[in-house]
Every structure is written in structure tokens, then in C-alpha cells.
Design a protein that fits this description.
alpha/beta, globular
């Protein structure tokens, strides 16, 4: 089976038909976003970085390299990841939605790359 195309988008950008299946990949719901208007198809908070890792990282670009390693390690140990992957296998296009304003240092990009090489 062909893997879905995976895109990234900030939660604060307007949802569009070109997003496909929208998955929020943050552990916390984005501030100021109403659930009714977010057009989120799935909230996959269990595959987001752990609270401890998120707090340690604190969006500090100097910790980015180590954060990537630690998050990938968490993903490899995450029991829910297999079920998540199975839940998106039939999708042609998914958009991983995240809240951070630092688009260069978001866990969503790590997750996108990880999903593209997994299974």
C-alpha cells in the first residue's frame, strides 16, 4: 500500500481542502483555537513529545539536535505509534497540524520524517 503524502501546517493557519486528513500532533490544544472551527480529524496527542521532553526543550534552538534524538527515541518506544500508522494508511494526504511559531524547529517535522521512513 502506498504511503500518504504528508504535509505540515500551523494550527493558526486557515484549514483548506488541500490539507486532506488533518491531524493535530501536539499534546496540548493550541491556545485561542476553538475545536469546532479547527477542522481537526484526529488529535494524536499520544505521539507528541512527552510533557517532560517538551518542557526540557522549551523551544530552545540550541537544544534542537538533542531534542530530535530524544523525540525519535520516544517514538521508537511509543506503543500507540503502530495503531496511529495503521489509522492513516488508507489516507492519500494528511496534514500534521502543530501550534509552535518556530516552523524550523517543530517536532512535527521530526514526526513527518519518521513516518516517511517507518513501515
Amino acid at each position: 500500500m502506498k504511503k500518504p503524502i504528508i504535509k505540515l501546517k500551523r494550527a493558526y493557519e486557515k484549514p483548506s481542502a488541500e490539507d486532506g486528513y488533518r491531524i493535530l500532533v501536539d499534546r496540548l490544544w493550541p491556545r485561542g483555537i476553538k475545536k469546532a472551527g479547527a477542522s481537526i480529524d484526529l488529535w494524536a496527542k499520544d505521539i507528541a513529545p512527552s510533557t517532560d521532553l517538551r518542557k526540557w526543550y522549551a523551544h530552545d534552538p540550541d537544544k534542537w539536535s538533542e531534542f530530535q534524538k530524544r523525540y525519535i527515541s520516544e517514538l521508537k518506544k511509543n506503543d500507540g505509534l503502530t495503531a496511529f500508522i495503521e489509522s492513516i494508511e488508507d489516507k492519500k494526504l494528511i496534514t500534521l497540524v502543530y501550534a509552535t511559531s518556530d516552523i524550523e524547529h517543530t517536532h512535527a517535522s521530526i514526526l513527518k520524517n519518521y513516518l516517511s521512513i517507518t513501515k
